[in-house]
Amino acid sequence: MTAPGLPLRQLLMSLGEPLVELQTAPHGLDVPVQDVAILDPEDPPTAAPGELVLAIGARGRAALPALRAAGRAGAAAVAVKLDAPGQADALREAATEAGVALLSVRRETRWEHLDSLARAIIAGPDTPDAPGSPEHNAGDLFSLAQTVAVLTNGIVSIEDTSSRVLAYSRSSDSDEVDDLRRLSILGWQGPEPYLSKLREWGVFQHLRTSDTVIAVDPHPELGLRRRLAIGIRTGAQPLGTIWVQEGSRPLAPLAEQALVGAARVAAAQLVRRRRELSADVRLTRTLLTGLLEGSTGAQSLATHLGLDVRRPATVLAYSAGTTEQLTRAEVTGLISVHTAARHRAALLAPIESRVYVLLPDLPANLPMATVRGWAHEVVEAARDHLGVRLRAALGSTVEGLAQVPESRAQADRILDAMGRGGVDLEVAALIDVQAEVLVSEVLALLQERGGLRDPRLTALASYDRRHGTRLAESVLAWLDALGEVRVAADALHIHPNTLRYRVRRAEQLTGIDLAQPQQRLLAMLQLRLPADS
Question: Which residues form the CdaR GGDEF-like domain (predicted)?
Answer without folding.
Answer: 297-416
